[in-house]
Amino acid sequence: MPHWISRGLSWLAAAVVGAVYGVAATIAHSFTWGPVPVGMILGAIACAALLIALRALTRDRWAALAAGLGMLALIFVISQRGPGGSVIVPNTPLGQIWTFLVGAIVLLVVAFPDLSKLRTTSARPETEPDRS
To answer: What is the pTM of this model?
Structure first.
């Protein structure tokens, strides 16, 4: 199988997994325990953990971007008014914060610089100058 096909399939799988995480976290985001938005906190942690794991394990920011786009796409889709008139993400401060929070997490994880090249550069022993 050519490299570009396997890479495309991995991006597709990442987008599907991101969509599933996005739906689950979006459904849970409105759960509060008193004034504490527990669902939003746990959903943000879960989405960030998925994106960080994809980025770290695949060493590919495009896989993390595919998962993030899957999350954002499904959040957008289920934020619309359904056929029965129900809305999962209402236009409340909590719903708006959730929408922008997921976008910010995706942006942060995808745009974070690749520090593995920094480690290989700093691990290389420096040569001592010639003192003759």
So the answer is: 0.81
